[in-house]
UniProtKB/TrEMBL annotation:
GO terms of biological process kind: defense response; response to other organism
Domain CSD residues, every copy: 1002-1069
Keyword field: ATP-binding, Leucine-rich repeat, Nucleotide-binding, Plant defense, Repeat
Organism: Rosa chinensis (China rose)
Highest rank taxon of the organism: Eukaryota
Protein name per Swiss-Prot or TrEMBL: Putative transcription factor CSD family
Length: 1092
């Protein structure tokens, strides 16, 4: 961290060299000399910091010296930012005074200190004399402190190491692989599944058995638990699955709330902080349900607290299980876990460790690289000491080493001899030291958040930006932030990724060991603490904390001790139920750059928020009752990001926002009442404007931001959603969307204007050809604009809601289109060749002779969705184009299509021939009565590996789950959907019967519950010591196409598969008779077969 801080300070001070060219500021005589000395000290320190940071692991004195250097570096940053703010305020006041047309922030306000001979004394106009002297005095004090620190460094005889001009490698998007495959844990996995699925013995009484996974940090406990949690047999066996990350301490209130939320049951009691109320709610929510509760990362467990929670869980059905992961074996005693239910994770073998290492290091499977480094890689893998996390971290590091020398340097590193840290930390240290200083700082900032925190990638980048970790070049901060994030992902510092439809990472978490690691480097700097314990912290420690997260405020207020944290740069105070903020709070927290007050109950902000002159990031989202922002928000001249999503009562933003010349990101999603001031259109640095609703008239002298005010916001990038579109076309044309080349996603949501008016309006909203994603919703025009065909980079198109359009544009001509969604177009009756964009290639539609050439329609389309097209009757094919003699040369239609989804198109008679020639991997048809009623196209579609009808798979992975239609039966015009003996519920696909261990004993019981629509149920054995057994329809011998009735007496055997699952198989009626029941005339959900 110290290395990155010093590098950042030097970058700021480097602008001094421009003084003679652009004299902006003058303080007092002699300060220029102080600044030069400051620079010289920092440069000398920078040369030894890499060595110092490596030595701090073993040498506490060095660690203390580095902490002192960090403290003074933070203080210097505060002084420079304060100075910069005074300059910025002066510039804004000058622009306000002269009423300039456009309020423009310079690319970067530089930190200039002129020499005494400089003729310009602009700083003389900035602030009072006392302000100037105060800043000058602080600079001198900082230099004195730095001089002392610099002199002490001589005692440690640091080695000088100068980093080269490193270029951050930009990993390819296709390489973003979540390396989560479990290696070397097959026995443990099978053992766990068996224990979770086995029958509950009578000796276990009321208590639901607890299964414990024990292992040291980095051993893969959570990864194994996740694998079990998502196992198909586990999903089938349990009615409810609940995952709770516990960590330290064991908070039963937090756990109870997490259980209720995981069950997706809305209950107002979840907002209570009364333990008994919450436990009663838990008990009711799981009543008569067989559940699996995973308590991940349990540390210190109090017996009384556990007993209270355990008692509330007893209401679950028999067969419920609790799976716990922990580093501490003593937890088994507190939880009274029997020894046979404790699974110890031992270290991986050298062979498995090498396999995991290679899997991570050689993502591209380059055989030449593997052979070149195989011998060294084998030795490096041994250094992992059998720890999966270490193997993964080292593999991620070596991915970027391209020579044998680099690999040998890692193998020979002195870090392997460091006994003061855990073995897993040794691997992380190597990866950490390999990062450039700025990326290190971004990683360490994550210690500000609690364990198991889910990071939103875009918000995290904005937070880094607010701390100036990314770049002094503000134009490229977002791109640099994305590269830094990607670098950390590729080096396995993040995990548990969530991705969008394009496969881009949107959210992630940090492994607990990695969190411990970053906390080690940010001791006393980044703090996470509970609000009700905050008063216990001493003032000296509070004065060192720079980044603070507050948690669990029982009375919905800030603790008194918050006033001691005077040097805070980050304050995260979300989910605390805060209702009011004292006006004097912001006087004490003047150094804040980041303030997160989201998810609270704040109704108003005090005017004193304007005192936070250095603030760059403000999040007020999800304060549902917040009604207005004070005018003093306009005094936050450094503000870069303002988030006010889901502030439902907020009606307008203050017109003083015109002064926020550094504002780049304005998020107002789902704050539907908000009106923006007109002068927002002058903030030309604005890059993000999410959730913009078009306004059509002014209110009480409040000039609002309208569509035409988008004109000068050419830096807008990412996504723009414009809702309630009305107004005239001239206004829309002034928006100049065509000039916004950085805008990649555009959503246009229309209001209630007439059809012709909307056609003109949409035509005027032509975007730049760089656009990649377009959604048009509520458009009532008859035709679509011609500019749609010029969007050569468009990857995704959604057309939703149109009652007048009968014909679709020739979308098949869009060369980059990958996803097409069409829904609620009520007048479209036919999809023909004009939709494919090949109409002009078919001059004579009445003949079978076609001269097409090498044409391709929808060349890159992968996913096609047709939904709620009420009038669609025909989807025209191009049969002639697929004649055998022409098949290889003439026409290619949707050559990349992998997924086709059709829903609620009740008039559609059949699918076109062109569909069967595509490489479809999944076909989904839902509520299309004619298509699913006959099943006559089964022969054409049967080659598709995955076919889903009305939410039920009838074929998956190439395995046919229903009998095909008998097309030879021409005498029976009425087809129907009936259950067949080859059908079973796909999400619980049974194991291959040939591989099952089948008990010889035949047991008796009764059908307890059978879900006829899903094809599975349960059988209650007559032996009371046995629990209910799962049964598939395929395991039941039935008489014809019958519905199985609850309460039927049955005989069966028990089958145990290789994965440990236990099921009832070979089920018959008494004495082996076929099961009897009612004939199901129209099941209508599975597949096609003829009734004879």
């Amino acid at each position: 961290m110290a290395e990155a801080l010093v590098s950042n300070l030097l970058a700021k001070l480097a602008f001094i060299s421009f003084t003679q060219m652009e004299q902006e500021v003058r303080l007092i005589v002699g300060v220029d000399k102080e600044v030069k000395n400051l620079t010289l000290h920092l440069e000398a320190l920078q040369a030894v910091l890499l060595n110092a940071e490596e030595r701090q692991i073993k040498e506490p004195d060095v660690r203390s010296w580095l902490n002192n250097l960090k403290d003074v570096s933070f203080d210097i940053t505060d002084v420079l930012d304060e100075w910069n703010t005074e300059i910025l305020k002066h510039r804004i006041e000058k622009q306000e005074k002269h009423g300039e047309e456009s309020v423009v922030a310079r690319r970067k306000v530089r930190f200039f200190i002129s020499c005494p001979s400089c003729p310009c004394n602009c700083f003389g106009q900035v602030g009072s004399v006392s302000v100037r002297h105060d800043i000058a005095k602080k600079i001198k004090e900082m230099n004195e402190r730095l001089t002392l620190i610099s002199s002490i460094r001589q005692n440690y005889r640091f080695e000088r190491t100068i980093r080269g001009n490193e270029q951050l490698e930009h990993p390819k998007t296709s390489s973003f692989v979540d390396i989560s495959r479990i290696i070397g844990r097959e026995d443990e996995k099978n053992n766990l599944v068996s224990k979770l699925l086995q029958s509950q013995s009578s000796q276990e009484g009321r208590s639901h058995p607890v299964v414990l996974i024990v292992g040291m940090g980095g051993m893969g406990k959570t990864a194994l638990a996740q694998l079990i949690y998502n196992n198909e047999n586990i999903k089938t066996h349990f009615d409810k699955r609940i995952w709770v990350c516990v960590s330290d301490p064991f908070e039963e209130i937090k756990i109870a709330k997490a259980i209720i939320e995981a069950l997706n049951i809305y209950d107002s009691r979840v907002n209570s902080n009364e333990l008994q109320t919450l436990l009663q709610c838990v008990s009711e929510c799981i009543e008569h349900k067989r559940f699996l509760l995973v308590l991940d990362d349990v540390w210190n467990l109090n017996n009384t607290r556990w007993e209270q929670l355990k008692e509330a869980l007893q209401n679950g059905a028999s067969g419920s299980r609790i799976l716990v992961t922990t580093r501490k074996e003593i937890v088994s005693i507190t939880m009274q876990v029997t020894t046979d239910h404790v699974i110890y994770l031992n270290k991986l073998s050298d062979e498995d460790c090498l396999l995991l290492f290679n899997q991570t290091a050689f993502l591209d499977d380059k055989e030449t690289d593997f052979k070149l480094f195989a011998d060294i890689g084998k030795e490096i893998a041994k250094k992992c000491h059998g720890l999966p996390l270490a193997a993964k971290a080292l593999g991620s590091l070596m991915r970027y080493k391209k020579t044998r020398t680099e690999w040998q340097n890692v193998l020979d590193s002195k870090i392997w001899n460091t006994e003061e840290v855990e073995q897993v930390f040794q691997s992380l240290l190597l990866s950490f030291y390999d990062l450039n200083p700025a990326v290190k700082t971004c990683l360490l900032y994550c210690a500000t958040f609690q364990k198991d925190y889910e990071f939103d990638k875009n918000i995290l980048i904005e937070l880094w930006m607010s701390q100036e970790y990314l770049s002094l070049n503000q134009d490229k901060e977002t791109i640099i932030g994305q590269n830094y994030f990607n670098s950390l992902v590729m080096r396995s510092f993040f995990q548990d990724f969530k991705k969008d439809n394009d496969g881009n990472i949107t959210k992630c978490k940090m492994h607990n060991i990695v969190h411990d690691f970053v906390q080690f480097f940010t001791e006393n700097e980044c703090f996470v603490m509970e609000a009700d314990n905050a008063n216990e912290i001493n003032i000296a420690l509070a004065n060192k904390v720079r980044h603070l997260t507050l948690m669990f405020s029982p009375d919905g207020s800030f603790p008194i001790s918050i006033y001691h944290f005077k040097r805070l740069s980050t304050l995260i105070a979300s989910f605390l139920k805060i209702t009011t903020i004292r006006s004097n709070l912001f006087f004490e927290l003047r150094c804040l750059r980041t303030l997160d007050l989201s998810h609270n109950d704040i109704k108003e902000l005090p005017q004193q928020i304007g005192e936070l002159k250095l603030l760059r990031h403000l999040d007020l989202s999800y304060n549902f009752d917040l009604e207005e922002l004070p005018n003093t928000v306009g005094d936050l001249c450094n503000l870069q990001t303002l988030r006010i999503n889901n502030c439902w009562k907020l009606e307008k933003l203050p017109d003083t926002m015109r002064k926020l010349i550094n504002l780049k990101h304005l998020h107002i999603e789902e704050s539907n009442k908000v009106k923006l001031p007109k002068d927002i259109g002058k903030l030309t640095s604005l890059q993000t404007l999410h959730g913009f609703t078009v306004q059509h008239f002014n209110f009480d002298h409040y000039k609002i931001f309208t569509l035409e005010d988008l004109e000068k916001l050419d830096q807008l990038q990412g996504s723009l959603r414009i809702s309630d579109l009305e107004g005239d076309a001239d206004m829309a044309e002034k928006a100049q969307l065509v000039k916004k080349k950085h805008l990649l996603h555009l959503s246009l949501e229309f209001g209630v204007a007439d059809s012709k008016h909307q056609e003109l309006l949409l035509n005027a909203l032509q975007p730049h050809t760089n656009l990649e994603v377009l959604m048009i919703q509520g458009y009532r025009g008859v035709v679509h604009p011609n500019w749609m065909m010029s969007l050569h980079n468009l990857r995704s198109l959604t057309l939703k809601g149109n009652e007048n359009c009968e014909f679709l544009p020739p979308l098949g001509k869009l060369p980059s289109l990958e996803v097409l969604r069409i829904s609620w177009l009520e007048s479209v009756k036919k999809l023909g060749v004009e939709f494919l964009g090949i109409e002009e290639l078919l001059p004579n539609r009445q003949t079978s002779s076609i001269t097409i050439g090498n044409a391709v329609a929808f060349p890159k389309l992968k996913q096609l969705e047709l939904h709620s097209l009420d009038s669609l009757e025909e989807w025209e094919g191009v049969t002639a184009g697929w004649s055998e003699e022409e098949d290889d040369s003439e026409l290619s239609i949707m050559p990349s299509l992998s997924s086709l989804q059709i829903g609620y198109c009740n008039k559609l008679k059949k699918l076109p021939d062109l569909v069967w020639k595509t490489p479809l991997q999944k076909l989904s048809i839902k509520s299309c009565s004619i298509l699913t009623g006959t099943g006559r196209q089964w022969v054409e579609m049967s080659h598709i590996p995955n076919i889903e009808i009305n939410n039920v798979f009838v074929q998956k992975g190439g395995v046919q789950l229903v009998l095909a239609t008998d097309e030879d039966d021409e005498h029976d015009d009425e087809s129907e959907l009936c259950r067949t003996d080859s059908l079973y519920w796909i999400s619980t696909m049974p194991e291959d019967i040939s591989t099952r261990q089948v008990s010889e004993e035949r047991l008796t019981g009764k059908v307890k519950w059978f879900n006829d629509s899903k094809g599975f149920g349960f059988i209650t054995p007559d032996d009371e010591d046995r629990e209910d057994l799962f049964v598939h329809f395929s395991a039941i011998k039935s008489d014809g196409y019958r519905t199985i009735m609850d309460g039927q007496a049955v005989e069966f055997q028990i089958g145990v598969g290789p994965r440990g699952s236990t099921q009832a198989i070979n089920v018959t009626g008494p004495n082996g008779a076929a099961m009897q029941g009612q004939r199901k005339e129209r099941v209508g959900r599975f597949g096609w077969t003829r009734r004879r």
